Amino acid sequence: MLVTAAIEAVKNWTYQPFVVDGKPTTVQTFVMVAVGNPPKPDAVDRAEMKFQNDFWTSEDSAEDALAKGDLSRAQAELSLNKDLGSTDKDLQHIPERWQWMTSMGRLCWDQNKYDEAEHFYKDALTLRSNAPEGKGSFGAGESMANLADFYAAAKKPELARDQAEQALAIFEKLFKNPGLGNQAAKRVYGENAARESWLLLKLARQRNDAADIAELCHAMVDFQEVLSAEQRDFLSAACQPAGH
Question: Which residue has the higher pLDDT, 28 or 146?
Fold first, then answer.
């Protein structure tokens, strides 16, 4: 929830340019945005910044490799962070641990190691559910959505439906939160809710469940405001054959 606020804050910072041979030079750097005022020594700060830089560098490279189908490179990059789950037992680095488990799930899925993929996706869900935010958090919803996609691809429609319905309930609740003033976050919640609605719609069509189809097409209207014109047209067209 604080990511967008942190990004907006950093955009307003004033930076001193890096100078090489007397000229300002474009560089890529890494900054830490601390929430609150935790008493950390400089050495701990530097170690944390190095960890974050190393982790996300390898994670980004792994995601790029997965997108390109280069599974060997993806596995090599993800192996750099394989000790994170076993050495970080005090619920620190939850987003990083979750991301690694999720990426490993996708890698195993692409490698046709379906049991291992399911194991990683379930571990990611357990991690998010046991975190301070709890089972109703956006992270838990993302984990459920990943499991729903996995089960749908594995031809396990009932398991897919169960996970998608739970994820949708979380995204809808967050989207409809009257106190939510962050429009960027609202859009993310709406897009995720629409995605789960679309998966549930496909599953309902497989069952020829007219009542579910009608309900899902009607529910999608709630998320129209956060979707692009192209997305709205796509969802509208998807519901038309069912007469909605």
Answer: 146
CA–CA gap between residue 184 and residue 161 (Å, rounded): 28
Give the tokens for residue 194: 């629409």
Nearest C-alpha neighbor of 127 from the set 165, 97, 172: 97
- Cα 136 to chain center, whole Å? 14
Q: Is the pLDDT of residue 75 over 60?
A: yes
**Residue listed under structure tokens 């129209």:** 224
User: pTM (2 decimals)?
Assistant: 0.77
Domain ranges of the chain: 1-132, 165-244
Residue 244 is predicted with a pLDDT of 43
CA-to-CA distance for 198 and 216, rounded, in angstroms? 8
Q: How many CB atoms lie within 10 A of CB 75?
A: 18
Residue-level pLDDT at 158:
96
- Residue 52 has a CB neighbour count (10 Å cut-off) of 15
Residue 240 neighbours by CB under 8 Å, 6+ apart? none
Please tell me the class of the 1-132 domain: mainly alpha
CA distance 5 to 48: 21
CA angle, corner 219, sides to 209 and 181, nearest 5?
155
Q: What is the DSSP string of 135-202?
A: TTSHHHHHHHHHHHHHHHHTT-HHHHHHHHHHHHHHHHHHHT-TT---HHHHHHHHHHHHHHHHHHHH
Per the CB < 8 A criterion, the answer to whether 171 and 193 are in contact is yes
pLDDT tens-digit map of 18-43: 888 888 888 777 777 777 666 666 77
Q: What is the mean pLDDT of the chain?
A: 85
Name the 3-class secondary structure at 16.
Answer: coil
Q: How far is CA 34 from the centre of its chain?
A: 22
